[in-house]
Every structure is written in C-alpha cells, then in structure tokens.
Specification:
- It is built from 8 helices and 5 strands; from the N terminus they run βαβααβααβααβα.
- The chain has 202 residues and is an alpha/beta fold.
- It has one domain: 3-Layer(aba) Sandwich (Rossmann fold).
- The protein is globular.
- It binds thymidine-5'-diphosphate.
- Thymidine-5'-diphosphate binds next to helix 4.
C-alpha cells in the first residue's frame, strides 16, 4: 500500500523525541525528500481529549485505551496512509508502541494491544527506541520545569521502558542510547536510517 518511508520514534518521557524528530526531518529534507512529521496523541478530537485528561484527571483505563485507538485510526486514515501513498518520508513522535508501553504499564497485555493496532495500523520501516534510564529521564523532565503529571510517575515509566526494550529484537527496531548530546543522538538516528536502507550511506 505504501511507497513512502515510515519512521517512528519512541521512548519514555524525557528522552528527547520531539527534538530528534525535527532533526531527522531536516536531515531527510536536506536530501531532497518530502517529509511529514506528526505526533500521537494527535491534535484531533480524541487526542485533545487525551491531552486534557493528563491535566484534569486521567480517564478510566478502558476508556483511555479506546481513545488512543480511535485517535490512531483517524491519524492513519487521514494523515499517515495518504502521506505514505504520496511517497513522503513520514516521521512520527509516538505510535502504537507507546500504547503497548503506557497502557501495558496500566495493566493491559502489550501483545493484545499490539494485535488490536496491527489490524489497521501499518508497520513502520524503522522503529527508533530512544533509551534512557528513568532517573535521567526524570531529571530532564524536572530540568525543563515540567510538572511530573500522572503519566510521568517513575515506577510506571520503568515498566514502560521495559516494554519498549522488549521490542529490541524486532527486525524493524533499533534501540538508540540517548544519554549523550543532542548532536550525537541525531547522528545515531541518521546512521540507523542509512543502515536500514532508507537513506543513502553517508
Ligand atoms: P507526549 O508525547 O509526552 O506529549 P507532550 O509532549 O504533549 O506531553 O505524550 C503524552 C502522553 O501520552 C505521554 O506521557 C505518553 C502518553 N501516551 C500513551 O499513554 N499511550 C499512547 O498510545 C500514546 C501515543 C501516548
């Protein structure tokens, strides 16, 4: 179905995903590729409900899971699939691996979450898992002045990290240590894209 290039960046809060999404997008654009970046939860109605709930009180587990699935269905249909069909490089800040990790940490079976998603959500060509110890990630969140909201509790982040790391042997996944400078981590992501055959070797 897709002719484009589909890259997903994942990791616990504080690993620097949004910065790296922008740097990787600029790197592909400099090679003359047409790039689309996006994020989940989205800015659509379901995503907005989820973001609001982080501040106003978290939704019940089943309702929260349902909202992430509805948000993603809309994202795939309206944004991701059309961009891939148009041959673009699509780079996402979070995707269904976050649902496996975060809703998995909340008690759902990550394998079942994966199954529910893969019915409608295309597999990425490359999944980049930004990895950082929870204590360092927490420090970074603190140093940005963010409040540690409900999503960002230490213990549940540890469970999330382990679920992300459980994907390390998937053929499309690469774990990227990110306790280094922004530039160094960016270089690792570029190298991973080259090795996966998604960009010419430097
Ligand atoms: P985040 O990327 O941190 O957004 P922001 O930068 O606006 O805070 O995402 C918000 C939270 O949503 C994050 O803590 C992880 C959580 N999340 C899930 O629980 N399940 C999911 O499927 C996704 C995509 C995100």
């Amino acid at each position: 179905m897709s002719h484009g290039t589909f890259i997903v960046i994942e990791g616990i809060d504080g690993t620097g995903k949004s910065t790296q999404v922008q740097l990787l997008a600029a790197w592909f654009a400099a090679q003359g590729r047409e790039v689309l970046t996006s994020r989940e939860p989205t800015d659509g109605p379901w995503g907005k409900k989820l973001r609001d709930s982080a501040a106003s009180g978290r939704l019940a587990p089943a309702e929260e899971l349902e909202c992430f699935l509805k948000d993603r269905r809309q994202h795939v249909d309206e944004v991701i699939a059309p961009a891939l069909a148009a041959g673009k490089v699509v780079i996402l800040d979070r995707y269904y691996f976050s649902t496996m990790a975060y809703q998995g940490a909340r008690g759902f079976d990550p394998a079942e979450i994966r199954r529910l998603n893969e019915v409608f959500a295309p597999l990425p060509d490359l999944l980049l898992i930004l990895d950082l110890a929870v204590s360092s990630a927490h420090q970074r969140i603190g140093s940005r002045g963010d409040t540690a909201n409900e999503f960002e509790q230490r213990e549940s982040l540890e469970r999330c990290r382990q679920i992300f790391l459980s994907l390390k042997d998937e053929p499309f996944a690469r774990v990227i240590p990110c306790n280094d400078s922004i530039a160094e981590v960016a270089a690792r992501l570029q190298q991973a894209a080259c090795r996966a055959g998604l960009a010419p070797q430097a």
